[in-house]
Every structure is written in C-alpha cells, then in structure tokens.
Amino acid sequence: MRLRSVILENFRAYRHRTVIPIEPNLTAFIGRNDAGKSTIFDALAIFFEHPAAKLDPSDLCVYSEKNPLVRIGCEFDPPKTIIVDAQVTTELKSEHLLNQRGLLEIIKQFDLSKQRSRPTILLRCRQPHLDGKPLILLKKQELSMAINRHEDKIKDKLGALPNRNSNPDMRRALRETGLVQIPTDDEDIDISTTQELRWERLKSYLPLFALFRADRPSTDEDAEVQDPMKFAIQRILQDEDTQDLIEDFKNKVQKAAEDVANRTIKKLKEANPHIAQNLNPHFRAEPKRESIFKLTIKDNNGIPLNKRGSGVRRLVLLSFFRAEAERRREEESKKDCIYAIEEPETSQHPIFQKEIIRALQDLSDDDNTQVLITTHVPGLASYLRIDSIRFVRRGNHNQPEVITAHENEEILAEIADDLGILPNPECRVIVYVEGMTDVDHFEGIFQTISSAQPKVSNPLQHGAQLLPLGGSPNLIKFVTRKYGEKLRVPDLYILDGDAKDKAPENNQDRLHILHKK
Cβ distance 402 to 41 under 8 Å? Predict the structure, then answer.
C-alpha cells in the first residue's frame, strides 16, 4: 500500500482540509523555517502511532473557532484483496470502501476537548446504506434479516439466495439487487467501534513508518543511531520466516513454563488442596518482541556513537539508508516502508550532501519503499528531481500552502530564488537533449568511453553540462537551463528529427539532429 497523500485539517497552522500529494518514490518538502514542513511529518507520525509522536491541545489550530476536532488522514493505493470480516477475503472496491479517486482514505479524528480520548477512525467513501445505516457496519444477523425481507426479489434477480454464513456474499446480493442507497459524494464511515470492519485488522495492511528527526537527543541510545537499528529489527521481526521461528520458540518456552507451573500446583495440591483447586498457569501478556533485541554500534575502543561528533552520527544514518537500498535490490521485501527524514543534510559537509540524495533516491527506487524528506539547504535541494518537490510557503492569512512544483516554472524560479540556488558555476558548455532518459543515455556513453580509454576524459568532469529540454530534471539543471543564455557559454542541441522545434529559432545553427533508425 503506497501512500498517495496526507490530509490535514484543524492541525496547527493547517486550518482547512488540505490534501498534500505524495510521490510514489521520493517526495521533498522545501521551504523556509516555520513554513509548515515538520508539521506534515509530525502528523504522519501521529497517524502511524509512532512512539515519538504525541498529540496535545496545543496542536489545535489557533483559528479553529472553538472546533476541538483535529483530523489527520492518509490516502493509499488499496490492496488487491483484504479480509474485512469473518476471515472472508473481499475487495475494497466491490465493498464500496474507496473514495471517488479510487483510493483508500483513512481519517483519524481527535477530539482535543477530551483528555486521553482515543481517535475516531473514519473511512471516507461512498458506502451504500440500508435502512439508514452503512451496509458494511451491519452484523450477520442484520444482513440475514434483510435477506429474509427481500427473499423473493433477490431470487428473481440473482436466481439464488446468498450464503448466509458469508457477510460479503449477503452484502453483494443486497447491492446487486438494488436494495441499498449509494450516496453521490464521499461520506465519513465510523469504523472505530464496529466488529465487522476492525481497525486493528485494517492497520496490518498499512506500511511501516520510520521517522528520523532533525533535533535529536544525545543519550546512550541516541535516536539517530538507534532509530534505524530499531527499525531494521522491526522489519526483520515482521518477516514471515522470522515470525514462524519466534512463534515456535515462544510456544516451546510457554510449554516449558506451563509445565513448571503445573508441577508446582500439583505439589501444592498435596500440601493444601483447597488453595490449589482454583489455580491455573496463565501468561499475563504477549512478550514485546522489539524489546528483546537491542542493537548499538561502538568503535574498537568501546566508545558509543552518541559520544562522537554529530556529523559522524549522521553518516551512520546515511550508511543505513545506503545499506537498505542495496539490501532491497538484492531481495524482495513484502512489507511497504515509509522513511521520513527531517533535514538529512544536518551536520554534513557539502561534499556529502549529493551522496545523501543519491542514497535516498536509490532507496526510493524500490517498489516497496517511499522516502519523504524536508530541507531548506540549497546544496541538497539542488539535486532533487523537480517532480519530487513540494514547495511549502505561507499564503493568505498565514495559512500554509503546499504546491506541487512540477512543470510550474514560476514556482521553480521562486524556490530557486528563495533558497539561493545559482547555476552551475563550473559550466563551460551546455549540451541540450530532449529528456532525462537522453541525459542518462549520454552520461552512460561518456562513462563507458572514459573507463575503456583512460586517455579520453569524461567531458562531464570538465565543465560540460547535459540539460534536458523536457522531462523532470533536478533543480540545479532547471536553474542552469533557465539562465543558460546569461551564462554566455557555448551550447549544442542534440535532438531527434521529430523534436527539431524544441530548439529555439535563434539557435538553429547550433542544432545537431539525430535521426532514428
């Protein structure tokens, strides 16, 4: 289940319902301090019940006009099938549990006028109603009674009655016979208390969520070191093979412990049968598997990482992401993961900032992984692909605006000016090509030639700049292209014959056309 959007309403500065689109791979939130970037990550942490997240009355929007309800939601690509009730597999689409965009929209609503209140779990969808009640919330007995009331009509329409032991079958019969009313707009369906659509069951389909904050403590279990290690252990523990091994181990320990308890009770019966007659072995709670395994990293002198410099600690975090990217390329992971990293460039030398983006982009290329970052540092933002950028700024009445920057040159120019991103100062010649795939193609050619012929220098290492005329380049390529004429450097256009019109008319004398064969 990929995250497709974050929805905020009445949460901190986000007063009105705000839908923030998320890219399938990497999404970067760019903006000045206090623009509202971290709020998005905090909201996600609350939604996914991250241990570092806590909602309190101060999170209520100051312009809420005495409305105590905070709503934090997410839209997901729905799973193909899901077990809704009674262990019967069904589809969310056929059950009318998706919103108008065909996505699974889950809203958590918090009433901050109450202390320690549990959130109300809402599905936003066009759920059919029967007798004024959402069909999905009807229990088996209620569905069966509805089938009895309309038995003749169902037989005439479908030729047979549905299986009375299958709630999905009975709901399908009522829908297909036209006995329900389907709303024209999305409505909120409260599933927080129903037994037919359990939140705990639905939650098991959600991605894992890992949050790495910018402001970290320096304790013996430093969060920036422990969080990735803890997350790695959590991911390993969710592997099916590992779960089978742990379950087998747990059963053996439980059996051995119960045997000890039973033998103790047996001896107690010999001493005092009256006291022993009502005693039985009982485990108070399931063991918390994550707390069994703790992992840290020390150097050869036994010095923990939290005693090292912040730059070194952040390099460990970078190395974790690079290792995760490599692991995911080597093995298939079944569980979707979301990594949310605040200001990954913190405490890093500018040389490493490009490496950070490359590592995070490699990690996000996996089908089961999404990466979210925040930044306001031009050195890192320069290397972000334009389609991954979400520009966060304050608009009317100081309300945050989250703008998708893709193909919006005015916004891209504003981002570049806001962050102070300048054209590549080392650029000596600009080679324009059609799109990003052509950039990758020529980069590969230059690398191959220079590797095979050491005497032939790679032009990209000596001031040549490949710039796409289309597609989604990174931000510094956009800036260099935008200000290309002002750089006063030679330029060359390499295009297919059918893309000749992409080159400016005043540059036709520098146009080289490649004809496709």
Answer: no
pLDDT of the residue at 290: 57
d(CA 61, CA 68): 9
Where exactly are the structural domains of the chain?
A: 3-209, 216-241+290-406, 429-514
Beta carbons within 10 angstroms of residue 336's beta carbon: 21
d(CA 61, CA 43): 13
How distant, in Å, are the alpha carbons of 44, 101, 497, 501 from that of 481?
Answer: 36, 36, 22, 17
| Sheet of 187-190, strand order | 18-21, 3-9, 69-76, 104-111, 120-125, 187-190
CA distances from 502 to 413, 423, 432, 493 (A): 21, 22, 10, 9
Check pLDDT > 90 for residue 103. yes
Three-state DSSP class for residue 76: strand
DSSP assignment, residue 516? P
What sign does the dihedral 310-311-312-314 (CA atoms) show?
Answer: positive
Residue-wise DSSP of 280-323: -----S---HHHH-----B-TT--BGGGS-HHHHHHHHHHHHHH
For the chain, the average pLDDT equals: 81
SS3 (DSSP) at 266? helix
Task: Give the 3-state secondary structure of residue 160.
Answer: coil
The verdict on pTM exceeding 0.85 is no
**pLDDT at 222 > cutoff 50:** no
Q: Note the CATH architecture for domain 216-241+290-406.
A: 3-Layer(aba) Sandwich (3.40)
Which residue in the block uniquely carries the two structure tokens 């409260």?
190
> Sign of the C-alpha dihedral, residues 109, 114, 118, 120?
negative
Report the share of the chain in percent with pLDDT over 70: 77
Identity of residue 19: V
Side-by-side strand order, sheet with 511-514: 464-468, 429-433, 491-496, 511-514
